[in-house]
Amino acid sequence: MEKVYNFCAGPAMIPAEVLSKVQDELVNWNGLGTSVMEISHRSQDFIAVAEQSEKDLRELLSIPDNYHVLFCHGGARGQFAAVPMNLLGDSDTADYMDGGYWAHSAVEEAKKYCAPNVVDITCERDGKKAIIPASEWSLSDDAAYVHFCPNETIDGIEIRDLPQTDKPIVADMSSTILSREIDISKYGVIYAGAQKNIGPAGLTVVIVRDDLLGKAKQILPSILDYSVLVDKESMFNTPPTFAWYLAGEVFKWLKSIGGVAEMQQRNEAKAKVLYDFIDSSDFYRNEVHSDNRSLMNVPFQLKNPELDALFLEQAKAAGLVALKGHRAVGGMRASIYNAMPIEGVQALVNFMAAFEQQHA
Amino acid sequence: MEKVYNFCAGPAMIPAEVLSKVQDELVNWNGLGTSVMEISHRSQDFIAVAEQSEKDLRELLSIPDNYHVLFCHGGARGQFAAVPMNLLGDSDTADYMDGGYWAHSAVEEAKKYCAPNVVDITCERDGKKAIIPASEWSLSDDAAYVHFCPNETIDGIEIRDLPQTDKPIVADMSSTILSREIDISKYGVIYAGAQKNIGPAGLTVVIVRDDLLGKAKQILPSILDYSVLVDKESMFNTPPTFAWYLAGEVFKWLKSIGGVAEMQQRNEAKAKVLYDFIDSSDFYRNEVHSDNRSLMNVPFQLKNPELDALFLEQAKAAGLVALKGHRAVGGMRASIYNAMPIEGVQALVNFMAAFEQQHA
């Protein structure tokens, strides 16, 4: 198949223009006669990539000067350990808001390092899955920080509000970063695995407020130590250079289309097309309350689950791939990250309508 | 410049045939209409990549069945922390043989978790840098394991012998793996950052003997926990899929040329051309005793260091790039990893001879 629309939840689509440029220059980058993945991370050429990518990300997210930007190894799950080991200081607890699979996975790792105060923030509203408003979250007095995951990829749940607290707010933004405007100054630490809206898997972006450095536990592996990474400008060890370069190309692309504000508008438009269609149909349904529907991941069920396999098979034949839902919730899931054009969502809706007509 | 010979110490050259194939299929891999970096690590297509790459690596290195192969995040420096946290068990010491910059860096990280017994194994032999024979290394009785680095990239030192011990031998093989034949059964753990002989930076290969699992400290981040990675088949979190795929292509290439035995012959031939030329010249010199000269990294000095800059400039103009030595030793360094063809070494020697003739 020559070209498909790829709804994979991650590793997800890379913008087509970016991938095409990367292909063109893969064996001879910058006129050097080598691939970008074959040069030293300490070379002038790569340092220019590193600096430009940080500059572009700072511009895209309006990152204040008192925040550091780190490009790390280890994925978001690495940060599940790094966050408590970097931020707990003398405290032995932190608030963990549990809104789904990923927030809960962070809890499990945090338990190695502290006694987390775990708060179930899920609820039912109008018969749909929803999240308790952040103003009502039960925070503890002695927590070192408040951790949450603003987008649960499996359930298709998004949290847009923040609690009122003077504690640092820490957010796993793997599926949120760059998808909509965020006020970075409200957070202590933001981290994100790259494989949704940034670039290839294996790279992790961390944005950390200056005053939170210097509290790392002695047992923290240096590759996860924010102070070390700040000090060494993310080059304590050889970084995943190719993924970093590709992330930089994604940032340039995002700037070229108008930045995060424009991206948010496009993402809202894409999500609206799909949710509106699902809501207008008796054949498909989405279980999430409109307050908390994710812009990025749209799970949906067929009224008759016996048709799931046929749906997936015919969708694939129509060039609409990776629509199978996570095993925890079943059904389908359309992940419509930044790189998914609205034409892809329209093609999906057209297919869904035709499938419904055939099988309703 | 269209094509150069790239002597970078890492991230290093990728075999030209591999890079060309990767470029061809970058936007449409396996006929899926997507890039390999855009598909789920849990998809059948990627699992086939993961399985084949492990199978090929096992075949290339004759890895016995009682060893696990892991594809990890974090680089070799991640393993500097992972090794003590996985292997110390109840012991509070391990033997660290210090033969150079990288072995020493492993010591610094190990100090977070134990009181390492650090043994300086460097010596001078016939006025050259050398390493004390492994049979004479001072091992301690209560060490949980013996750690060493068989190839020091900065000094251009290689260690080919092993100590007699019933303790697990742990080796940082970042610059050794796949370059020459190794008897895996003599080791407890072998680890290697990918960016020398395997693939792009950001991937780490770990080979661990079965009986060493299950001793991990509770504080070990799960992404570095060998038992977790074994249990989840290196997919506890999203692995660096593109780097893994590319490593698999490098393994296929290595098999296609005849495997590690053939590669070792080629590497020995390449190194001989370069060392023989250096030894025949009064204009260049290498400081390492022939007992311990690295097959992979050949540092050399010009008699007159004032010519260094000119040498580098003219070499670059001749398509011979990344020859600058590490700042710790100065001069030049030619890294001639697996992907460097003998034609590249010959071109370097020809250039060196011409430069000598011009400036001697």
From TrEMBL, chains A, B:
Binding site for L-glutamate: R42
BP-aspect Gene Ontology terms: L-serine biosynthetic process; pyridoxine biosynthetic process
Keywords from the UniProt entry: Amino-acid biosynthesis, Aminotransferase, Cytoplasm, Pyridoxal phosphate, Pyridoxine biosynthesis, Serine biosynthesis, Transferase
GO molecular function, one term: O-phospho-L-serine:2-oxoglutarate aminotransferase activity
Cofactor remark: Binds 1 pyridoxal phosphate per subunit.
GO cellular component: cytoplasm
Quaternary structure and interacting proteins, as annotated: Homodimer.
Protein name: Phosphoserine aminotransferase
UniProt organism field: Photobacterium jeanii
